């Protein structure tokens, strides 16, 4: 048994992904320690309680866990949106606006046109795709940096959606007798068929948050992984991302690919907006703040080094500690969790350095082992 | 006429943070490092300078030494921004990491830290840090009396005058001089254009890139305070995307200080038209539309996009920006 | 006092995987022109970078005037009056000549630049050494020759006594080379000591006093030029007698493969057209060489032929099919292969594996995918086949990330990919740049093999030796015009040089041969 373990360790440590995994794990560990230190500084007597909330609450009950899954689904989508664009050489900082447009199209088609949930989700993708196409078009045809266009269209999208929603009485809550005029309608009053089905999961988990969104998000992540790594289309997109000139030289239509990349990235973020607002539990409030779900896609993607399968896990992780962070209010501000995430991301910038250290440690343990062995 | 004076005055106060931060971004990019963390750095600068002003208010000392306190607050914002920006320099200059990763982390950290610290200092849920009113420069500072019905010039100058405005103008003038007329400017630009060439004549590329990022941190920190003053309702752990607009202003200004100044004024003007659309008489009011002000608030972003389309063909970024410099690479 | 102004004693420098310098000793006498000869990769540039402080040696010492010195960075080198003209000029393109010369040693008052003082000194130096430059012109606007003079002035401005020239003639025309030789003699006459790195033997014979030969990181020996011959130097450099002439059968020209008619291509850099009303053709079974100095429209012409850029006007046909408006992919399908100018910029996706790069021009063919799904087995099989057929060496075979491969093997991969397409026309742009003699011979053999199998080859080259040896017909391009057509057997390098420099021209119009 002992020998088997040794062998397993030996094969494991030689896998190329192993060092990356350890580096990420080390980053997460350091991030959590940093967070804990903050807790100690601000309220030492409650610090252990705070940390345990972050670490444990997500698993403490089926209801809490379903909240983790409920928030993870749109996070996976915005993470995929950013990660997919990264893989094709583009920085999509516009997932927020694409997410907003996805939300708008989902609500509009679900309520005004009384679309069922799956059709409304497709409309959400369409909304996100149109907004994603903008930075792509501006980059391909006018040579405007996609980061700037994305940022501008985040704000244009926010204001446009706000004005549109405010002027379509049917989508607002007060149309159905609720008191707040700046809120979108409760879906169970506006169109029950547009609510994403729960397939009995809500009773199983004893939580209204639980529905099939998380499974749809995971399936889409797998599809994106497949497209990027196994298809000629993915081959073209990645070639374009790695070296645009070489892809042009190889007869790949780089301009078309830039636009397509951004359209797909946008549709993923838009789908995320649809997932969240068709859950039946979320209502949008008209305000002047950009959707944070879109920006949170960036750390999700970075933590997973843009690997679509990795994005599933990084979104689950981030959602998990966010649920924990909410639970430690009011003793601590939930933003401590954001601080932990930012430290982890910052350290992941050092992944090469961390990997080097880990490689050294493994080597040292290997030589130490040899010396002990007869 | 008074409305025009108001518009000009408001334009200037909104242009100042953009100018400062875009100039900061320019220093960083001219040295070869893309600073996408400007937003986060602004927040850190705004946070500490607001806390300082708040402290000066509470201690009672501030109100009696208003402009001195304000000058110190500017320094606090600049220095804390500078220190924070060194984290970006460490990641992207020393460790040669992807510059978007370090920048994103700093942008994520800053607002969260601001909220956590605001709570810790002011008590749970107390997120807004109020800025004392005495920081405003009034006619009294110049020995003038405050008139009931100010004329055009008086309204334009004194409606929104804070120490950040003259400081920003001085920094602009200093920047134009520094970048084009001094040894430092020549070397900084060389590092952003052709670091190998700079290295071959004995210039320490890493050092200059650190300095470039640090100056951007200093200016963005001050810009954070300038934004908080312009926003007018205290510091709420955000600078509302101004760090990113500043990047757009910098590109629109083609990495050239004078043109950046023009771009900042232009962007601010449309921002003001957006915000004050209701009180500007000659604009259509779209009275049938609920929340029609949002239509105007889209304006600066749309106009920026249109202008970028026309200017981007000619735009010329520093050649080596965004590429970590590696001495060993041949 | 030592006879030698600079001595590099038993220098050893290792990079991961290779010993770039192995126990090399080089001694430079005061006031001599000392050539450093060796193939690409022999370790010449590394040795000079050590002397200039860009690298530090693991072993060995540097002495100046008999005293041991430490050179840890270019500042140290400068303080010892050592200056260097790098092979790739270290000039900031958007800076003026003056700014580039003073960068690093700026004359200032209260840290404000004293431009006038600098200008006076530059003007004085340029008159003294006959190095004409325009101090206020931007580098991007001046010729390569003037850029080189700026680099030389950079050293003189710093009062350097030891001047290192790294491959200074690679980018120059024969006439400009003559001028440079005169400049070097002038510098020597003023008492400067000169190190001259090159792999061109005739230049050494012309200007050098002594020559040290390196091969594969080792020092082969130092010889006096008046006691040696080109043959001996070349044997020392390569380690075996070199076949400088490419073996090939007589030309049997076939039908016209590529016909270019009145092609005009716009320039991205300036308002004038880069290629002006150019007509020529390439026949089956011949190698046509487009000779010219860099930046005379070759790149734009090739972009237009391969479809990377659209021409303003004109027509091009491949075996009678009009391809003027075809996409890059369609031209590739029609039978054009392209070995691009810059293998890192265009030829390869460095972060892809070797297998993925080898199918870059044909991944879309039905045998490599089913309904858009990549058939990995077929891709790997095809890659393994090419790897063994073209002897491409790499660490992990088909799965090697191309970035980690050597330059020669990267180029072999491109050549393999392009030739294996069995094209009607092979366009090769400077296919041997930066490669060692072995790889150069290999690539020349492949080009000739294409020709002998009845294909057309269009070769763009800046190396006149290559132009003379490989081609069947030479077209000289100057400022976007084809200014002369020559048979390599009936022309000389000097004559080509005159046409390349624009001193002579007989415009070739129309598609006649």
Secondary-structure class of chain C: alpha/beta
Strand content of chain A: under 5%
| Secondary-structure class of chain A | mainly alpha
Rg of chain A computed from alpha carbons, rounded to a whole number of angstroms = 23 Å
Number of strands of chain A: 0
Query: Which two protein chains have the largest interface (Cβ within 8 Å of the partner's Cβ), and how many residues from each?
Result: A-B, 48 and 46 residues
DSSP strand content of chain C: 25-35%
Q: Name the poorly predicted regions of chain A.
A: 369-374
* Quaternary structure annotation: heterotrimer
Helicity range of chain A: over 70%
Number of helices of chain A: 17
Query: What would you give as the CATH superfamily of the largest domain in chain C?
Result: P-loop containing nucleotide triphosphate hydrolases
What is the CATH architecture descriptor of the largest domain in chain C?
3-Layer(aba) Sandwich
Indicate the overall shape of chain C.
globular
**CATH class division of the largest domain in chain C:** Alpha Beta
The CATH topology assignment of the largest domain in chain C is: Rossmann fold
Task: List the secondary-structure elements of chain A in sequence, H or E.
Answer: HHHHHHHHHHHHHHHHH
How far apart are the first and last residues' alpha carbons of chain A, in Å?
20 Å
Task: Give an account of the 3D structure.
Chain A folds into 2 domains: 10-60 and 334-374, no CATH class; 61-332, ABC transporter involved in vitamin B12 uptake, BtuC, CATH 1.10.3470. Helix content of chain A is 75%, strand content 0%. Chain A is built from 17 helices and no strands. Chain A has helices spanning 2-13, 16-43, 47-60, 62-87, 95-111, 117-142, 146-166, 187-190, 201-205, 213-230, 232-242, 244-249, 254-277, 292-303, 308-327, 335-348, 351-372. Chain B has a single domain (2-135, 155-311), classed as ABC transporter involved in vitamin B12 uptake, BtuC. The longest helix of chain B is centred in the N-terminal third of the chain and has 29 residues, at 2-30. The radius of gyration of chain B is 20 Å and the shape is globular. With 513 residues, chain C is an alpha/beta fold. Chain C has 3 domains: 4-238, P-loop containing nucleotide triphosphate hydrolases (Rossmann fold); 243-335 and 423-513, P-loop containing nucleotide triphosphate hydrolases (Rossmann fold), CATH 3.40.50.300; 348-422, no CATH class. The longest helix of chain C is centred in the middle third of the chain and has 16 residues, at 174-189. Classes of the chains: A mainly alpha (374), B mainly alpha (330), C alpha/beta (513). At the A-B interface, helix 7, helix 14 and helix 16 of A face helix 4, helix 5, helix 11, helix 13 and helix 14 of B.
